[in-house]
Amino acid sequence: MNKTVLILLLVCLSVCGAQAQISWPDGKKAAIVLTYDDGLKSQRDIVMPQLEAKGFRGTFFLYGQVVKDSDIPEWREAARRGHELGNHSLFHPCLAGTVETSSSSLCRSLECYSVKDMLTEIGMMNSFLYAIDGKKEHAYAYPCGQSVAGGEDYSRPLLDSGLVKYCRGAAGRHVVEDAKTLNFALIPTLPALTGCKADDLIKYVQDALDKHGLGIIVFHGVGGDYLTVDAAEHQKLVDFLAAHSDEIWVGTFSDVLDYVAEQAKK
């Protein structure tokens, strides 16, 4: 190969790689999104005060079956304070055997759903959330991280339906590095499992920093409820993020993904 052509090829590859990297606002090197599933009491009692003390806001994915009338004023007030409320479906359907089945005679497992059924349920939950926070658009998180209804993947039909713009999907340690290749129907996340330690979560945050990427963490209970992470471990993570606020953007799911979507267009 001609030496000049080879040099030009290498330069092109270098430039293309640089363009793929997300350029974060205000000189930040990475973004971290803290998400919380199932609308649990410990999230309102423990998580929100920890976040707000550092000026942070989280994203809380609610499902209709667990939001009691008495909880609605608290969730409405949380949204007013800047926390994001997300759609986690009405009945939290998962594949059979993933979680304990309900005593109800109705089938609530994903095997019993069609894609149309799932989209209808998500649309109904959007209306429920609108009644709480007054917002017409809500992000979505797949219950149990599963996007197959009746044997068919509903992630792309959901995004194409316009019901939601962003879907939090597959679990793993994957950090989002390239806005242009991100599948907004299956955005990866790191689950903080029972007994998870802050050191492990901080390693994930550091990975996002090293890669100038986006990291998304999902919690359930914090200091209580189920799938519980100790409140002190959660506080250590929040403290680390606050100590590095000059280089890490801690934002809500939709705010950060709105920015990433704009980057993907460039």
UniProtKB/TrEMBL annotation:
Single GO MF annotation: hydrolase activity, acting on carbon-nitrogen (but not peptide) bonds
Chief localisation class: secreted
BP terms from Gene Ontology: carbohydrate metabolic process
Signal peptide: 1-20
Keyword line: Signal
Residues annotated as domain NodB homology: 30-251
Protein name as catalogued: Polysaccharide deacetylase
